[in-house]
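so im writing up the methods section and need the Family with sequence similarity 133 member B record in one place, dumping it here so i stop losing it
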Amino acid sequence: MGKRDNRVAYMNPIAMARSRGPVQSSGPTIQDYLNRPRPTWEEVKEQLEKKKKGSKALKELEKHREKLLSGSESSSKKRQRKKKEKKKSGRIRVY
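--- predicted struct ---
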């Protein structure tokens, strides 16, 4: 009984990949990204202006917030003064 020859020929993985041909990638290529349509400078300016303006609902919310804040300023200032006075009186000085 002789030994079996279980040696395998070495296959270069890079050469094997090249022999299969170019890889078919899924999804957009770099050229697709470079050739995509882009907005003109005027269109970009219009979009920025729309973002700055905001929606009517946001404007109404801002107005409502301003009204609430202007009405509660005096009471909030009083609360802050009371808190400061309590902090000052609560301090213990150690010499």
